[in-house]
Amino acid sequence: MSVAFNGLMANTATFCAGEGITAGIPVKVGANNTAAPCTAGDAFFGAAVSASNGYAAVQLSGFVTLPYTGTAPVPGYNLLAGDGSGGVKVVTAGGRSLLVLNVDTSAKTAGLIL
Q: Which helix (H) or strand (E) holds 113?
C-alpha cells in the first residue's frame, strides 16, 4: 500500500484569470472575481489548476503540491506566503498557516493542505 493525498477535500472554482496565471501557482484575489499571481509575501487563497481563454480553475481546498523558494518548509504547520515567482516561501509574518504533509528538497516542492 502507498500513501496518497490527491483529491483529499479538493474544491475547485472558476475565476477570471489575471495576467500571468498559469497552472501550479499560488493565487490571490486580483480584481472582482479574478485570480491573480502572488507577489512576494502575499497571502494566497488557492492554487491555479489550469488557465485558458481568460478563465482559471483554482483549487480552494484540499491537497496540493507547490514549489517553494528559500528555507524549506517542514512537515507540520508552517506560515506560508507567495514568493513572487510562482511558488511559496516560509514567512514570519503575514501569509497563512498551512499543514505541510511532505517536502521534497531535491525538487523544491511542498505537499500541503489548503
A: strand 109-113
Number of structural domains (the chain) is 2
For residue 77, the SS3 value is: strand
* 59 and 69 housed in the same domain: no
- For the entire predicted model, the pTM comes to 0.92
| Three cell numbers written together for 101 | 504533509
* Whether residues 82 and 58 fall in one domain: no
Judgement on whether residues 40 and 50 belong to the same structural domain of the protein: yes
Residue type at 68? Y
Q: Which domain holds residue 42?
A: 11-63
Residues 51-110 have pLDDT tens digits of 999 999 999 999 999 999 999 999 999 999 999 999 999 999 999 999 999 999 999 999
